[in-house]
Design brief:
This protein is of the alpha/beta class. It folds into two domains: 81 residues, no CATH class; 339 residues, Alkaline Phosphatase, subunit A, CATH 3.40.720.10. Helices cover 34% and strands 17% of the residues. It is built from 13 helices and 19 strands. Strands 3, 6, 7, 8, 9, 10, 13, 14 and 17 form a nine-stranded mixed beta sheet that branches. α8 packs antiparallel against α9 and α11 runs parallel beside α12. The longest helix has 25 residues. The radius of gyration is 25 Å and the shape is globular. The N and C termini lie far apart (70 Å).
Length: 472
């Protein structure tokens, strides 16, 4: 029934009026959001540094994500029982309630392909294919008891990086940037570098999800312009470009004043960042000022060759320039077959540069306030796949290592059973790891929230506890 014009009730006004109470409230909140992001002559800066919840141990993160699920049994978790029982069926009690990704769970046990040695004063036991990591054993914290629910690559990678197997959640890097901002004015606060096959999970591994888009990771290309269309087209000089950007900015600021929409603030920020990137990104990617000794330490023979080693060195250069979060993606570890040769080659491609990054940060005084992470999305089965030279996906236990401020260096945390099948001591779930990493950054994972669709979300969802035993 049509509302009588002379019967304007209070309930009708609040519900049907063109502005409405809900619209008024939303507008006020948006204006508050924008006001909180302004500095220096009223300009909006979504990436301005923000205070942490408490005194942090580290200021920045370098995450070497070795996707494809590196085999812990060939790299970090030696099992003599697998050698003794190679080819035998696993105990029936071990397989109760177990569901493998691809293989018959009753496949025979497979001995590790490499020998292990103890390294450093801590006596950390590592594979023979990781000699360079062995050199920094006293600087790292090795976790052998990681766990996750995901059993396939894309959801497991997204789980590790966003705390959920579902698409659309903010990544760890985005949460870090949202919580702390960035100290770099000329480079993105969250930079992504890729080598090998990239990732199965794609951009969801470093996206902002429902956070403002400026908190997402920015991939830098290894060839051509670091960012697509970074160079001006023919006929456009620097002055013309600056005048165009200033005109666009005035229009956007006018809309921002009228609407208070944070997405407009993000658009302003993105234009300005792209302009500054035109000079800062090419300089960053040029390694001519690096010494021959530094290049040799990383194993870089050709400074222009795009590979994992070059990305590790770029990661150090990025954090030196104030970038808050750098993530390397290198997917090459999915050895369902060709296990021995595959792991050996992957270690050859990554071990030297990974260790060199830690050494380089340490000698420059950066390791003490930088968090370095090396790991994948899950582990591999102790049972064989592909004849006698492959392993299936395994989410019940896997390994990764950390280095940097606030961690107990030289520590091996957690323990798996004699077969490397289940965690038997100090389990660390993905949510527990993320809660602990945020803690090192001075962020309480329970308080770092963002309201979306009527619910407060966080990186650890509704889970997560600090892994206090690895904290110094």
């Amino acid at each position: 029934m049509k509302q009588p014009t002379n019967d304007i009730a209070r309930r009708w006004f609040l519900r049907n009026c063109g502005i409405g109470l809900g619209s008024i409230t939303a507008g006020m909140l948006l204006q508050q959001d924008v006001a909180a992001l302004t500095h220096n002559e009223g300009r909006v800066n979504l990436l301005a540094p923000k205070p942490p919840h408490f005194e942090p141990k580290v200021k920045r993160v370098i995450y070497m994500f070795n996707a494809g699920a590196p085999s812990q049994l060939e790299l970090f978790d030696h099992k003599s029982e697998l050698i003794a029982r190679n080819g035998q069926l696993p105990p029936a009690s071990l397989l109760e309630g177990y569901r493998a990704a691809f293989i018959d769970p009753k496949s025979g046990l497979l001995a590790g392909k490499f020998s292990f040695q103890k390294h450093g004063q801590c006596g950390m036991e590592l594979s023979e294919v990781l000699p360079h990591l062995g050199e920094i054993a006293d600087d790292i914290c090795l976790i052998r008891s990681m766990q996750t629910e995901a059993v396939n690559h894309a959801p497991a990678q997204i789980m590790m990086n966003t705390g959920s197997q579902q698409f659309g959640r903010p990544s760890f890097g985005s949460w870090t940037l949202y919580g702390l901002g960035s100290e770099s004015e000329n480079l993105p606060g969250f930079v992504v570098l890729t080598s090998a096959k990239g990732t199965s999970g794609g951009a969801s591994n470093y996206g902002a999800g429902f956070l403002p888009t400026m908190y997402g990771g920015v991939p830098l290309r290894s060839k051509g312009d670091p960012v697509l269309y970074l160079s001006n087209p023919a006929g456009i000089d620097s002055q013309t470009q600056r005048e165009s950007l200033d005109a666009i900015r005035r229009l956007n600021e006018s809309s921002l004043d009228a609407l208070g929409d944070p997405q407009i603030a993000a658009r302003i920020q993105s234009y300005e960042m792209a302009y500054r990137l035109q000079s800062s990104a090419p300089e960053l990617m040029e390694l001519k000022d690096e010494s021959p000794e530094t290049l040799a330490m990383y194993g870089i023979k050709d400074p222009k060759e795009a590979n994992y080693a070059r990305n590790c060195l770029l990661a150090r250069r990025l954090v030196e320039r104030g970038v808050r979060f750098v993530q390397l993606f290198h997917e090459a570890w999915d050895q369902h077959g060709n296990l021995k040769a595959g792991v050996k080659q992957n270690a050859l491609d990554t071990d030297q540069a990974s260790a060199a990054l830690v050494k380089d940060l340490k000698q420059r005084g950066l390791l003490k306030d930088t968090l370095v992470i090396w790991g994948g999305e899950f582990g591999r089965t102790p049972m064989v796949q592909g004849g006698n030279d492959g392993r299936d996906h395994h989410n019940r236990c896997f390994s990764l290592w950390l280095a940097g401020g606030g961690l107990k260096a030289g520590l091996t945390h957690g323990k798996t059973d004699d077969f490397g099948f289940n965690v038997v001591e100090n389990p660390v779930h993905v949510h527990d790891l993320n809660a602990t990493l945020l803690h090192l950054l001075g962020l309480d994972h329970l308080k770092l929230t963002y309201r979306f669709q009527g619910r407060d979300y966080r990186l650890t969802d509704v889970h997560g506890k600090l892994v206090k035993d690895i904290l110094a």
